[in-house]
Amino acid sequence: MANKYLDLFYRRKWFIMVVLMISLPVGLGVYLFTPKVYQAVSLLSYEQQKISPNKMSPDVVSRIRDIVSTLTQIVTSRTNLEKLILDLDLYPEARQRLPMEDIVDSMRQQIMIEPSQQGDIFKITFNYGNPDQVVKVTNTLAAKFIEENLKYREEKATETSAYTSDELAMAKETMDRKENGMRDYKLKHYNEMPEQQVSNVARLLALQGQYQSNQESVQDLERTLVLIQDQISNRKQVIASERANAFTDRSSNRNEEPINPDMQLEKMKILLEQLTSRYKEMHPDIKRTRNIIARLESEIASGRGSGSGKNKSKSAAGSVDTLILQLETQYKSVLLNIESLKAEKEQLKLALKEYEQWVAAAPVREAEWSALTREYGQLKRHYDYLVAQNLEARSMLNLEMRQKGSQFKIEDPARYPEKPIRPNFAGIMGVAAMVGLGIGFGFTLVLDFFDGSFRDPDALEAALAIPLIATIPHIETVAEKRKRNWRSFFSISLMISGILLVLALFGFVWFKGYIVI
Q: Which CATH class is domain 195-393?
């Protein structure tokens, strides 16, 4: 079977070679008429910010790939690409027959932004038919990438700073309202606060002691008041009895020793000191006591000038009045003391009630204050966090304004491409040769399929189903042999001429520079 096909292909060798010779120029034509596509590559690197990158960089926790992806969407947006197409006059023929949106999509497909394995280095690749413009576009895209990165980071830093400032202002306003509420609450319920509990209890115990002492003092003074009343009553009875007996028994009355006015004056001065220590100068008892002292002093002075007999009679009468007056003054003083103590008792009762209310309200205030301070603690932590975020945002904004933050840098700008990436000469020629051989072999098989002649005795016996007696070989005459030789020479010459022609064509195109390998 294999020999059959080898014999078949050998017999059709000139046809196969002709088809192959035709396919190679066709492949060359395809190569020459296929638009050349050039590629330019620009290498960029991502540099962390120069000032405290670990402390202040907002993208320490973010991935550079995300930043590159975001900037890729911005750089390859329709607005940027359309402006680039118009500025560099790209795709002039396509712009005449296609809408701008399709041209932008086509250009976007020719742009590739590929990060490296490390992530901090990536390359921008652009494919286009003009080598000069492909370099310009690639470098423009790289510069646009850096520009958009700076703009994007500055806008992001500005928005972040504004957002944190607004949040901080709102948090501060909330904090101020909360602090004012806490201050007002504490001022309103200061005496009921838990920290005043110890002093309130101590003061309550002291007030209870004072209240008990006040009650005991009132009881003592009331007993003293009863005694003074008894003394005044007894003294009045004695004076009335003495006056009744004064006219009948003058002799015995003369022999009685009178009360010394000087001693009485001394007692009134002592009483005056006691009254001034308790009351103000305008108190009626103090005025009354001063009048008594003045009268006693005048009596003593007049008694010394008028004689002993007369002095004795007057001092006897005045001594009785002075003693009763002294007792009455003492009685009034005790009454005033009782009233004062009762008034003090009422004040103590009010104070006790007030302190009891404060002590009783302490647990309620403690629970309310705990709720206030707990919410305030959460607000304070949130406020401190916003303060830190605002400081960081301001620092980042300052860095971005001074272009000290993380940024992209062109490590290797795009260079002029020396050869196109498409079409591939070797690939096209290989495909053309394969197609030519395929057509030659395939057409040979098709011709053999439709060929009804027998070239093998076995095939003839199988087809006719009769035994073959003999085969007569072809005896070539001299004329036929000469004709065959001339035909072979012509075929070989034609084939060599075709090969030389194809080689000349390829050489011409090569030396003209149309073929780039």
A: mainly alpha
